[in-house]
Amino acid sequence: QTLHHSKSAHRVVIRFVFLNTSTRFAMMKCLALAFVTLSTFAASFAPIANPKQHNTALNAFENELGAQRPLGFWDPLNFISGPEVTQERFDRLRYVEIKHGRISMLAFLGHVMTTQGLRLSGSIDMEGTTFASIPTGLKAFSKIPDAGLIQLFLFIGFLELNVMKDVNGTATCPGDLRNGKDFGWSNFSDEEQRGKRAIELNNGRAAMMGILGLMVHEGLTGEPYVLNSLLGYPSNFNAGF
């Protein structure tokens, strides 16, 4: 029986070795993703070192925006557990969550629009590389000129450090970047404002999962819109590039 298992193991290893490089790479990424998913899942059920501290955090933040059904207050990795947790730390983490959600909403929408073939007119550089010649998704990074990538990096850094922030300290909640301007926000009641903030927060959370899913499926199979393929309507993603 031991010899039989040994031969079976050798056959599995031999088959893996003779797989093409892209297939092996995809399998390894799948295994890595599965490991991270299982680790996060296990962490959410791991015993808490100090239940009293956790209950204190729960009582302090269970009514915060975003703590809603079906999960309620959900902090599986204990980012805001412990005596050192303050409202300031919670607000900082909430601001980061909102910012990532906003970026992800733009990224997801951009991915969908460019997949449909919508591009800016003109060229991206002085050599005549057109916007229309840039593919969608991860493949775009190999086509954008190096100078363009540097410009993108510097522009995003400028926005992060000088524009997209509470410059004059007038924010009324995490993510409020109006900087003294109203934009019609005061026309809404407190309940309406809270509802709109909740909508933005939830849409941002969905977009973060959405753009991550598109990136993972594109990296694994080259087809980010996997549901289309399953239903018999492939997106023909980046066809012609």
Walk me through the structure.
The chain contains 7 helices and no strands. It is globular, with a radius of gyration of 24 Å. The chain is mainly α and 241 residues long. Residues 2-27 and 36-52 have low confidence and may be disordered. It is 56% helix and 0% strand.
Structural Rg: 24 Å
Give the end-to-end Cα distance, rounded to a whole number of Å: 53 Å
Q: Please state the average pLDDT score.
A: 80
**General form:** globular
Share in β-strands: under 5%
Helicity level: 55-70%
Descriptors:
7 helices; mainly alpha; 56% helix; 241 residues; single chain
Task: Set out the fold topology.
Elements: H1 2-17, H2 21-44, H3 51-61, H4 87-115, H5 146-163, H6 190-221, H7 226-230
What is this entry, summarized?
This protein has seven helices and no strands. By secondary structure, the protein is mostly helical.
